[in-house]
Design brief:
It is a single chain. The protein has 188 residues and is of the alpha/beta class. Strand 4 and strand 5 form a beta hairpin. Helix content is 31%, strand content 15%. The two termini are 33 Å apart. It is built from six helices and six strands. The chain has two domains: 93 residues, Beta-grasp domain (Ubiquitin-like (UB roll)), CATH 3.10.20.30; 84 residues, DNA polymerase, domain 1 (Orthogonal Bundle). Strands 1-3-2-6-4-5 form a six-stranded mixed sheet, with helices on both faces.
Length: 188
């Protein structure tokens, strides 16, 4: 696995401050960082690794713009410290696909116009990919009628699972159409 090292400017933490070594496996590349222990995963990704696809929206975990996938589970990267994820596998929007080779979810968002201004789109897409994995794994949600049966791929189920991702432009119905199309492709 390739390794990239991001330098930290000398004295950037102030007198007496310390850094901690954090190793993150981001989009298949191992990164060794020296970080202030208070650095969020979001800031490590954006400010230290220069992966700016993950957005800083509310910085309080309320909008979902910062959603990334860590070890197969979606999280709000603004609410977790980078040191808590040393040696974890992190997937950002940049790791899902490229403009020349889109991930199926990215292609479906384009096809169904599941974005308008685009600010929330990276978080929406990362969350949508993880949502399908949650349903496939049989993890129930708040609206799952039977907690012992496999969750059903309904619009209500998808809306509930995506409710932590806010789209101020209101592209929700298009987002559900995109997710439904990708889910149908996985089932066939």
């Amino acid at each position: 696995m390739p390794e990239a090292i991001a330098p930290v400017a000398a004295g950037s933490l102030g007198a007496g401050a310390t850094t901690v070594d954090v190793v993150l496996h981001v989009n298949g590349t191992r990164h060794r960082l020296a970080l202030d222990p208070r650095t969020t995963l979001l800031d490590a990704l954006r400010e230290h690794l220069h992966l700016t696809g993950t957005k800083k929206g509310c910085d309080h975990g309320q909008c979902g713009a910062c959603t990334v996938v860590v070890n197969g589970r979606r999280i709000n990267s603004c609410l977790t410290l980078a040191v808590m994820h040393s040696e974890d596998r992190v997937t950002t929007i940049e790791g899902l696909g490229t403009p020349a080779d889109l991930h199926p979810m990215q292609a479906a968002f384009v096809k169904h116009d599941g974005y308008q201004c685009g600010y929330c789109t990276p978080g929406q897409i990362c969350s949508a990919v993880a949502v399908l994995d949650e349903i496939k794994a049989g993890i129930p949600s708040h609206v799952s009628a039977d907690l012992t049966a496999p969750p059903q791929m309904t619009a209500a189920e998808l809306r509930e699972r995506m409710s932590g991702n806010i789209c101020r432009c209101g592209a929700y119905s298009n987002i559900i159409e995109a997710i439904t199309e990708v889910a149908a492709g996985r089932q066939s």
